[in-house]
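Researcher: I'd like a structural prediction for the single chain below. Treat it as a standalone chain; there are no partners to consider.
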Amino acid sequence: MTKDIFDCIRESHSVRLFKSEQIPEPTLTRILDAGNMAPSAGNLQPWYFYVVQDSSVKAKLAEASFDQEQVSDAPTVVVILADPARSNEKYGERGAQLYCLQDSAAAAQNILLAAEGLGIAACWVGAFDERKVQEAVEAPPRLRAVAMICLGYSGEQPKEYKERLRLNEVVKFIH
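Model: Treating it as a single chain, here is the predicted structure.
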């Protein structure tokens, strides 16, 4: 049973304390499939998902992310890498510098929402040394590390809904 998408959006939050229990493979596959179904410029899908469960590699990723403990503690870390060359072929420099990053971020958001919908806790990690992350997962030099998503079962107490700005503070209608 999955949650309504609007409940997922409202209730999602970053979890930084995970239980050691691994996510069942069918559940993880559904989460990754959601990431792979994200929209992308020209439907190029310029992303790769490196699924890390090896503790020594997670330790390297934690070090690359300035010692964020949730990276080494989460049972699974999905490293999302973009392929700028794939976007460059169709869209030139703008594709390589922007579209592949936007596309990969959309994939990351789909992963986060799918995880929430399936009862899996997550944390988007964006603060890291790209080169060290790339080396830790042995990715080809052409790929660019965009995000790491820590996944597992929450070891935290449930949280209240997050405070958000009101719509009238962030929306401008142009008629």
